[in-house]
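FW: tagging you since you asked about this chain on Friday. Here's the raw sequence from the shared folder, copied in full. Didn't touch anything.
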Amino acid sequence: MIDFPEIASIPLAKWIDKAMDWLLVNLDGFFDAIGFIILQVVNGIEGLFLFVPWFVTVILVGLAGWKLLGKWKTGVVFMLMMLLVGSFGYWELAMRTLSLVIASVVFSLLIGIPVGINMARNDRSQAILQPLLDGMQTMPSFVYLIPALMFFGMGKVPAMFATIIYATPPVIRLTNVGIRTVDQEAVEASKAFGATPRQVLLDVQLPLAKPSIMVGVNQTTMMALAMVVIGSMIGAKGLGMEVLLAISRIEVGRGFEAGISIVFLAIIIDRITHSFSETKTK
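HL: got it, structure written out here
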């Protein structure tokens, strides 16, 4: 009576394994095509970051901090952070991590914003997608590495694939919430003047929902940065790999340097992306 009855057990793991086997056999070409596209995008961004001289990147980051946040002191702090990352010897790895983050965010936004718009305009879609998003956000991030590894092998592509799954829900949710909370009087007024549904969306709902959408972009970016670090476990080169090596070799100093470099990138990315949502509300 203490043990759970075996007759009531559900072999979910076996069903999922069979589904994965079917996907690998029947959709191998499809996943190869997706992997090729993802790899080309991330390699292009990475090549650009590594091509630009370090001092140019430092200056651009400082200017972004000054112009977007409105304080020259913030720009100076950003520049000092980037200089510290370089002084630790992690400049190239930081650029590789940053390229993975940006590429992941680009794909996440291309998927998330249209899906969020569809959720906002269709109650049935929201009812279906809501529990899926709950699962995507609450599922341990390490779980995403398993199918990504099976579909794409080791390297940047599986890390990107897992990151996109993990980082997309915030922008979907906040796009949906932003559009649904737009003042209905503004929507009705635009319809009264003869606006088509597309014009209502592009000219009224999306502009008014921009602050919420930009918060979603901010959250997606931060989650992508966190996941890219975890992605180093399956071969994605970057600062996460240094943290992993420091753990395996019990090198506290090395781990701290790599960790604080990730923190600096996170602060810079967070402040810059968050500034867009703030400027839209002024």
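FW: The mean pLDDT is 85.
HL: agreed, and Residues 174 and 216 are 5 Å apart (CA to CA).
FW: great, closing this out.
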